[in-house]
Amino acid sequence: MPGVMARRVDPKVLEKLSRRLRRGSVAITGTNGKTTTTRMVSKILHTAGIRAVNNSTGANLVTGVTAALVSDTSLSGRPASEMGLFEVDEASVPRVAEEAQLSLLAVLNLFRDQLDRYGELSYTAKVIASAFPDLPPDGSVVLNADDPLVANLGRGTKNPVFFGVEDPALDTGKLQHIADSKDCPVCGTALSYEAVYFGHVGVYRCPNCSFARPEPAYRATRVRMDGPRGTDFLLTTPGGEHEARIGLPGLYNVYNALAAAAVAIEAGVEAEDVVRGLRAFGGAFGRVERVRVGEKEVFLLLIKNPVGFNEILRTFVASPAERANADRAGHVLIAINDNDADGRDVSWLWDVDFEMLAEAVTPGGAVPRFYVTGIRAEDMAVRLKYAELPVHSVIPDRKEALLAALGATPPGETLYVLPTYTTMLELRQTLSDLGHTHPFWEDK
Prior knowledge:
Layout: H1 2-9, H2 13-18, E1 25-29, H3 34-47, E2 52-54, H4 62-71, E3 83-87, H5 93-99, E4 102-107, H6 121-129, E5 140-144, H7 148-151, E6 160-165, E7 192-198, E8 201-205, E9 218-225, E10 231-237, E11 240-246, H8 251-266, H9 271-280, E12 288-293, E13 296-301, H10 306-317, H11 320-324, E14 331-335, H12 355-360, E15 369-373, H13 377-386, E16 391-394, H14 398-408, E17 414-419, H15 421-433
Parallel strand pairs: 1-3, 1-4, 2-3, 4-5, 5-6, 6-9, 13-17, 14-15, 14-17, 15-16
Antiparallel strand pairs: 7-8, 9-10, 10-11, 12-13
């Protein structure tokens, strides 16, 4: 609302205020990981002693960016910060780039997401690319080399900077059936993959034309995953190699960390501060967030599309650590809403590979105990039924479902909570009201 009102008073308020940021502004967009990556960069900048204003609550439309800058500005019109750091919705990128005087724009990935809003990925890519001419001559775009559609955005741009993973041990061996961008974005031929990490992300080339994965300037190698405790990897930058660690699990968070490192270093931060900032980062609210509830732990993991959901299932529920505990079922609460912020079309639930869970269970082993809640709880229950996974309870009320799942979770164990966006806010509010965590708008 502050952004809406400010733009009514002065339609050029974002342009005027952003010009007063001494270090300029950077923006981060893409389907998955925007909030986490933006907060990673924020932690890195704080570690380096740089004060940055950012839309930390996730209000990522142009009005949210405007509100963040207005809140950082004194009555005399001077921002307290020296740099702008903004998470931006894919469809809002052109307008933000036009008004916010961006010096750097990072694109993390492009997956099918909220089809009722965006439609085809190629269209979303074109929308993002239309913002590039508004960057200054010395501006840069930071792109995921391992996502063919994102990497293709670098063709014809003046200063593309690429990041990617190079670790053959992480190759899954095949494209998932939900892989969105299997064909060459230049000639339409099916891409040939040397390695597939998840979805359509990996090491690829076109057998028919010259299009291929570009050489990344920022690379992650020797990736060592330590279950839910975090991930170690060797970070290679244009200035050298550095041992890095993030306290977040999953390969998708390695990509977020790579993007954050690239953005920060391209913005002038030293690599040593980047490594220290990544190590100190504890996660973004609700995206990958641990909450202690007495002797138990609640692990909040935001879900929003098939690729992200699959990686969460693969990393946590069907991980080797879970398979090793054949006598422990584990507890999972899936919370599905279909409000505007979640996306009205929930047909994507049928593209999630829940069948991998049945395959991951060892003979005689226990299956995770599923609770489902939210506006579309019944839809989720039907999907699990077709995957031959038993649903313990269908409880539409979010608070009641959380308390029931928590009550059934034994002391010392973890309740995995997999919510869509608005159910995440509802469940976090419940945890906050009970005194177990802070409100989402408080950055702690």
